[in-house]
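ok so dumb question maybe but i'm new to this and my supervisor (M.) told me to 'just get the structure for DMT family transporter' and walked off. so i did the thing. is this what she meant?? sequence i used:
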Amino acid sequence: MSIIRLILLTLFAMLAFAGNSVLCRLAFQQTSIDPASFTAIRLLSGALMLALLVQFRRGDATVSRKRGMSAIGGNWPSACALFAYAGGFSFAYTSLTTGTGALLLFGAVQATMIMAGWWAGERLTVRQTGGLLLALAGLVAVMLPGLSAPPLGAALLMLSAGIAWGIYSLRGRGTADPVGATAGNFLRAAPLSVLLGGVLLAQQQLDGLGILYAVLSGAIASGLGYALWYAALRGLTATRAATVQLSVPVIAALAGLLFLREPITLLLMLASAAILGGIAMVVFDRRPA
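this is what came out, is it supposed to look like this??
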């Protein structure tokens, strides 16, 4: 893979990840769509896009044989983690700013994956331990009571969404055909989101522009974005893959400022430096303790 193609794939994937945050905030700030409906439409759109990608890819017999690509896969435990992430993400963003939500989400994702490695026997060095404590301190600082602190309920929902996405990512490591597996997980998670919408039917509010944002979030930022990311992963080391994702909260915060006129507070800047810097200390130091 050429370096230019790798850079472009990685850049578009990071923009897509940040785009999910922006589209979700746009939907809840500018339209009347409810979070349950947004989640269902997002997952259904993502499932359709990924299924089409799998079908298109299977149609190329040469590529399929070369890469060992198979039919749609996935499993129910991963689908449930995906549903928990998507639902928590949508409900949290009804009250969080774009940058704060992305920071809490990706901070929780990385912390979950780091702690899972520790639980599996991967011991941290002194530097890694310090980095993890610094990142956790940043997360606590974001949630401290104050004028700029996010609502506690929404913050906890986003942290839960990040933990669910971390679990989903951990379950997907080593998957032979990640795009096919993701398509299957989206197809399984979509009915769960429809069921949630049915339970909360009394609160349902559909809006044309809100539906469009949800479709863009599911089909483009999620479905196509994940496909681009998996393509980029073939040229990235594990450390680089973890590190480049640290750019997403920064991109999301800047996009929130540009498209939603959301302020970037001093607390958010300091907490971002602590969280992203602490995580970087962990992922850049892989030496055994």
